[in-house]
Design a protein that fits this description.
The complex is a heterodimer of chains A (298) and B (287). With 298 residues, chain A is an all-alpha fold. Chain A contains 10 helices and 2 strands, in the order ββαααααααααα. In chain A, strands 1-2 form a two-stranded antiparallel sheet. The longest helix of chain A is centred in the middle third of the chain and has 27 residues. Chain B is an all-alpha fold and 287 residues long. Chain B folds into 2 domains: 163 residues, Photosynthetic Reaction Center, subunit M, domain 1; 99 residues, Up-down Bundle (Photosynthetic Reaction Center, subunit M, domain 1), CATH 1.20.85.10. Chain B contains 11 helices and 2 strands. Chain B has a two-stranded antiparallel ribbon with strand order 1-2. In chain B, β1 and β2 form a beta hairpin. In chain B, α5 runs parallel beside α9 and α7 packs antiparallel against α9. The N and C termini of chain B lie far apart (72 Å). The interface between A and B is large, with 104 and 103 residues.
């Protein structure tokens, strides 16, 4: 492992360090020093642009009336261009705002990933956090970029707004014949609920053995001690299987990554490979009760 | 046995018995598993319930007896029809098997939780694991028992089956207009995705530092990394508090979103009328 430290063109950490008193006894209280750096600055400014463009689009829709803005905030949406524009650049008010905002949002996420990567290596850690983050980035890219390009229409992507994301999720599911029957969606949900389960199990296990210092995980991986032993025996006696201080974090990363990657595959296969997941379920013969109403197999 | 296990088993034998945990009867290990009083209860009712479900799905109600995998995926045990109400029916075909399996499962889950209490006590550690399990047990109680009782019939419970419960969930969402507009569903989903996010961050963080101790990498490097990119490092105790309570609150919020549907709120879209109809807006010429 190289010990050479990564340096960026301009490096700066804030000098002030604050402490949040209300967190005492619950978690670490120190705020800062935060690091800016080139990638941080790029991420910050492109996100600022994304928010700025979105606010302009929303502001125009409510005639710059602040009260109306507040009232309609939950449903205000920057819509992607209508399908007739395909993948072309649309006029600002017909989806151009959306295209610009999405461009800068994408840039933000890419810059942010690079920022985490450089910060990890600069602090002599393996770049596992940016690798994990790129799984989420892949899901984002699948939804906002790859799937729309494949289907030749930006209209396939979600609009920017609070209700818009919920409505897109709902419509996307119905448009491709109910996502409950999408096997990749099933695997993704398995990963999602499994993640919550693992998180509860791991968090609770470590909290239960705090008195024996099991929370010092970097040290415990090197040589496990009483806290980890008691934690391991808990699960071994309960369910006949236990992880180690190291392997539980492999499980963790694996489940969380599975959620995002399987979800992305589920989105990417919808349309080009399977236009209707309900009919797929019919063909696979897994639809209970309503199997009788499935169309006959040709 | 693990290399260090014998010592802890001896220690466990010396822990004084209590009434609620079966007075220490069956304080024995079967292979890797600890048995204990509640373990036996879980074993008996778990076996009964599972056997009943598999028998119904793979044999008694099987569509195609030659394909057990397909029956496993699409088979189901349905709750009693609405006219049964909250009666305890013993009629096959009127939901007896659903009642029987739900009864067995409820006892099994409770016994499993008590078994975790027992083992936590034997190992002289905190009770956070049974508390976290209690959260998800409360979810089962809410959906299968509390909500059906509030609405007056068992048919409100979900059918026991792999695809069947997906169908039920899908239909449930649209029955109350659209679950996407249920604010407690939204909070629950946020915490659900938040769980995956926290899990991913924590797993990746620990793995990024593990095995590098010989090169002088410690948790201080992790702290500095988090201060650098987020401006805050929650710390090695804090992350596990955040972890447990993100997951637990996710489940508790989903309890709320279920139990309010059909009892208090019939239409989650119309629910938001309170926002549009707030008198505040009329002062500015809206409505």
């Amino acid at each position: 492992m190289a010990t050479e430290v990564y340096r960026e063109p301009f490096e700066r950490r804030t000098k002030t360090v604050r402490y949040l008193k209300f967190l005492e006894g619950l978690a670490d209280t120190q705020i800062g020093p935060i690091y800016l750096g080139m990638w941080g600055a790029l991420a910050f400014f492109s996100y600022l642009l994304c928010v700025f463009i979105t606010l302009i689009g929303w502001g125009e829709q409510v005639g710059w009336n602040p009260i109306r803005f507040l009232r309609e905030l939950p449903v205000l949406t920057l819509y992607p261009p209508p399908p007739s524009y395909g993948l072309q650049i649309a006029p600002l008010r017909e989806g151009g705002y959306w295209q610009l905002a999405t461009l800068f949002l994408t840039l933000t996420l890419v810059f942010w990933t690079i920022r985490i990567w450089t910060r990890a290596t600069a602090n002599r850690l393996r770049p596992m956090v940016p690798i994990a983050f790129s799984a989420a980035l892949f899901l984002y890219a699948a939804i906002y970029i790859i799937h729309p390009i494949w289907m030749n229409s930006w209209n396939e992507a979600p609009g920017h707004g609070l209700a818009a994301i919920l409505l897109w999720t709902n419509h996307f599911s119905v448009k491709y014949g109910n996502f409950y029957y999408n096997p990749f969606h099933m695997v993704s949900i398995f990963g999602l609920l499994g993640s919550t389960l693992l998180l509860a199990m791991h968090g609770a296990t470590i909290l239960a053995t705090l008195a024996y210092n099991s929370h010092r995980e970097v040290d415990e991986i090197e040589s496990s001690d009483e806290g980890t032993h008691r934690a391991q025996l808990l699960w071994r006696w309960v369910m006949g299987f236990n992880a180690t201080a190291h392997s539980i974090h492999v499980w963790a990363l694996g489940f969380a990554t599975l959620t995002a990657v399987a979800g992305a595959i589920g989105v990417l296969t919808s349309g080009p490979f399977e236009p209707n997941w309900y009919l797929w379920g019919c063909r696979a013969g897994i639809t209970p009760g309503i199997q009788a109403s499935c169309p006959p197999v040709p | 046995m693990l290399s260090f296990e014998a010592k802890y088993r001896q220690e466990a034998m010396a822990v004084p018995p209590v009434y609620a945990l079966g007075l220490g009867v069956l304080k024995i290990w079967i292979g890797r598993f600890y048995l204990g009083f509640w373990g036996l209860v879980a074993l008996i009712f778990g076996t009964l319930g599972s056997a009943a479900w598999f028998w119904r799905v793979l044999f008694a109600e099987a569509v195609d007896k030659t394909n057990p995998l397909l029956n496993f995926i699409r088979g189901q045990v349905q709750p009693p029809p609405p006219e049964v109400g909250l009666a305890i029916t013993f009629e096959d075909g009127k939901g007896f098997w659903w009642l029987f399996i739900v009864f067995c499962a409820t006892i099994t889950f409770f016994a499993w939780m008590m078994r975790q209490v027992d083992i936590s006590r034997l190992l002289k550690i905190g009770y956070q694991v049974p508390i976290a399990f209690g959260a998800v047990f409360s979810s089962w109680l809410t959906i299968q028992i509390v909500r059906p009782v509030l609405l007056g019939h068992w048919s409100e419970g979900f059918p026991l089956g792999v695809m069947a419960h997906l169908d039920w969930l899908s239909a449930f969402g649209y029955r109350y207009y659209n679950f996407f507009f249920n604010p407690f569903h939204a909070i629950g989903i946020t915490l659900l995705f938040g769980s995956a996010f926290v899990l991913s961050l924590h797993g990746a963080t620990i793995l990024s530092a593990s095995g590098l101790k010989r090169e002088g990498v410690t948790e201080e490097n992790i702290n500095q990394f988090y201060w650098d990119f987020l401006g805050y490092s929650i710390g090695e105790v804090g992350i596990h508090r955040l972890a447990m309570w993100t997951a637990v609150m996710c489940v508790l919020m989903s309890n709320l979103c279920f139990v309010l549907s059909g009892t208090v709120v019939q239409d989650w879209n119309a629910f938001w009328d309170f926002w549009n109809k707030a008198p505040f807006w009329s002062g500015f010429g809206f409505n």
